[in-house]
Hints:
Layout: E1 13-17, E2 22-28, E3 35-42, H1 51-61, E4 65-70, H2 80-96, E5 100-104, H3 108-118, H4 127-146
Parallel strand pairs: 1-4, 4-5
Antiparallel strand pairs: 1-2, 2-3
Amino acid sequence: MVHSEALPSVGRVMGIDWGERRIGLAISDSSQTTAHPLATLGRRAGKRFPMKQLRTHLEITKPVGIVIGLPLTDEGTEDERSRVVRDLGAMISEKTHLPIAYRDERMTTARALATIREFGETARGHRKDLDQMAAAVMLQSFLDVRR
Length: 147
């Protein structure tokens, strides 16, 4: 695992919230102060990670590193899902040559859903928004702790 200190402190950072069906992407500003939802990648269960779609977003945003949400158990320990995400991170790093850091992703979807509800909306019809918002919540948490 690359520690957050290994990511450059200046330049945009991409956040990835991995899911079985959808993968949320977020991006920071170049000063690494704020995170913004970027996109949601579709993924069919059991199929490969959509690297081509990710590369398109990497080419456009030109991040200096990637933060991937790490699923942990309620007790804060790693399990099989964590191993899958770490393997994904290793593959992304190998193919992009970008440093990778991990951030606890527990409660990010719940916080994103709460934000949607604050605006009087429901999750219905906002599933794609929810995934990229969860990625932004996770990335913002990483940026805040790092500062």
